[in-house]
Write a structure and sequence with these properties.
about 35% helix, 3 domains, elongated, 19 helices, alpha/beta, Udp-n-acetylmuramoylalanyl-d-glutamate--2,6- Diaminopimelate Ligase, Chain: A, domain 1, 22 strands, inorganic pyrophosphatase (n-terminal core)
Amino acid sequence: MSIYVVGHKNPDTDSVTAAITYSNLKNKMGCDTVPYRLGDLNLETKFVLDYFGVGEIEFLKDVKIQLKDLKYKKNIPLSSHLSVHAVYDHMTKNKIRTQPIVDENSKLIGIATMRDIAMSLINGDYYKINTSLDNIENDLKATIINEKNKSIIGEMLIIAYHYETIKRQNQITKDSIVIVGDRYDVIKLCIDKGVQLLIITGGAKLPNELLNLCNNSDINIIVTPFDSYTTAKHMNQVNFVSSIMIKNMIKFNANDYLDYFKEEIQNYSHSKYPLVDIDGNYLGMVSRRHVLNPGKKQVILVDHNEYRQSVEGLKQAEILEIIDHHKLGDMSTELPINFRNSPVGSTDTIIYQMYKENNIEVDKKMAGLMLSGIISDTLFLKSPTTTLVDKAAFEELKIIVDIDIDEFAMNMFKTGTSLVGQTIEQIFNKDFKEFRLYGKKVGIAQVFTLNIEEVFDRKEAFQEYINEKFEQRNHFLTLLLITDILKEGSYLLFKAKNQQLMSIALERKIKQGEYVENLVSRKKQVIPKIMEAINILK
């Protein structure tokens, strides 16, 4: 199973490009990884992926344990056209008590159990036959003398009476399946009557005259080495297994979650359940013991290390690595992992270092993605989070990409900051994160724009949405940073439980929509100031 490489929810350019470039690095080092996104791509990220010819990466809903992750038993399914005897023989040899039955397209249509087979021998209709000539030939170890029809459906008749008695009773019809020994007169009568199938027991060697008559007849004729009693006893076992299988069985889809499976099987006493794919094709059998040590999805996290920012169901998965540049979060693992966290401006800066450390060549496409992540997260190296390491990576990657970087960055920001056609909710939540600061729940959204009027034309609507978010999420503070990339500052819209909070944080009287110079970094500038203000207000 491939390893999932994921960035955070509400994915930005650094998060998405980091997932792609780190997955590429791991694959070149011999791993099997696939990058995923946890939300819709923003316009800036789409621009970057299109510019460098990278397809949109797949969305990942969750990493909860599914039944397909279990080490379930892949029992070989058997065809519904096999006989009960053939299925029983297979189950006995392989010590199987529950056997999946499929149609000609491998779709699960039923299951056969040892109990079903036993009950058919006790309560079944001994005389009704519905099978194929092949099944009868195989199960009775018979030799075909004459073959006219593969399908055998009718009533079994065992002839042990005298020839004249049989004639008087007039039991033989065209639908009859007749079992008889070396009674040549009866064999001739069956041929004359045109029975459906004549089974000659005891391995009888027919006289040449009778054999020629059999060969030239219009009926199925076989010879079995078994005596008449044994042949008759075996006949209801030659029926199609579909005649005794359970058709309305309890089955599960491979995509079903383990939690759902555990909940459902509490209502049943079965020990095993068939597993199918989305098209109903049989995959295997899941038993109760398989849930004791379930296989977990393996995940590598980039650009985050907090559960609330990560993929749903992460606690059911196995975290292999974390590559990040944020503060330490609340994640924990059962085993030691590779955890790389550096105080740089972009996760892509760290990943570029790892390419170099492992002597992996960086092609133009990967270089372009990493360069875009650095440009985005450092605001073209203008953010206070920018370090010398970011700048060095930027210069080296710029040489590999070999484009007009100023024009590219401006087009990237211009595309990414356009708010045309977006709702208030979409704009607010495209880069929204929640934090727990000194026990207070704080939500901070950030919007980058080159046209501040696109926001302030809807200022009242934004303020109303902030107020709703504040109440719904029970925040101590809900804040929207509207960052002007060219002016390198931010406008503030907020709702706080303490009206003095933002003024204390920024050390001046702050009103709604006020512009604050040199305030562009949520991580490096805003959060530390809010933490300090909360501490003062304690």
